[in-house]
Amino acid sequence: MRTAARLSPEHPTRHAHSTPNPFTGGSAQAAIRISARPPPRDRPLRCTDAVSRQFTPRDTRTLQSRNEPSGREFSLEIPHAVEKLTQLAEQKVNLSCGLGNNGGVSTATATSTAPVHPVVNRPNTTTVGFIVWLSSELMFFAALFAMYFTIRSVVPQMWETETAKHDVVFASINTSILVLSSVTCQLGVFKAEHFKPRRTGGLMNIGSWGMIEWYYLSFILGSIFIGGQVYEYATLVSEGIAINSNAYGSVFYLTTGFHGLHVLGGLIAFLLVIGRAHAAKRFGHREATFAICMSYYWHFVDVVWVGLFFVIYILM
């Protein structure tokens, strides 16, 4: 039995592989036509041109089978093998041309995408906890204010004589210094939010200051306020207003004294923030959060003192 492929004069065959036939004693010619002519130069190279040159004579040798029982079965399997090799070659060329396994045919695949959920920006837990703690401090000072107004309502005549001993001008200057320290603290917060802990220029160039420089200035102003309050205490004691002299003295020193202790705590917190900024290799989110929480506390202390100043020195 003979299986032969016709040879075209325009496309000569490079090799023709012959296989013996056990039935006829002859040989079955299995010829695979492979185009050796390159594509014309007047048109661009197409993927189909590469398919025609995909096979080589070495590929046709794989079609031989030494263990075939008969030439009939072998001759029937040759077309199937050639067709399979042709499909593999087309897939390879399609992949190289960017067409995928399906060539130029576009396919639609069903893809399931997860629903997009809105992103929830949760507040910083450290900031929330600090604000809750400040709320408890607010309740503490509210109790002090209630004590002050209660005793004043019971013995109003005492306020007529004792309040005249206060130096309102000095207290106003001391209050202005504390309020100014709150402004410098907020300027330091702006630098901390931009992760600028240190100055970028000279010390006298205020515009180049970082968080550390502004917090140092706030610490100095807060220390001046504490010094002024100590001086006022010494003056009032010399004039006969002590914590154990009368009800007014007790109320005055309790309210302003607890506030002074909170200011001292704020000064210590300033040093902790500055020391942490110096110790950190990289000023990051945690250091900035610590500095911002410190500013909350300092603003709270300033607001409380403004209320105390209005009640004690203005409403005399």
UniProtKB/TrEMBL annotation:
It is a multi-pass membrane protein. It is found in: Cell membrane. The keyword Membrane applies. It comes from the Bacteria. This is cytochrome-c oxidase. Residues 18-27 have a biased composition (Polar residues). Its main location: membrane. CDD domains: Heme_Cu_Oxidase_III_like (cd00386). Residues 128-316 form the Heme-copper oxidase subunit III family profile domain. Residues 1-75 are annotated as: Disordered. PROSITE patterns: COX3 (PS50253). Belongs to the cytochrome c oxidase subunit 3 family.
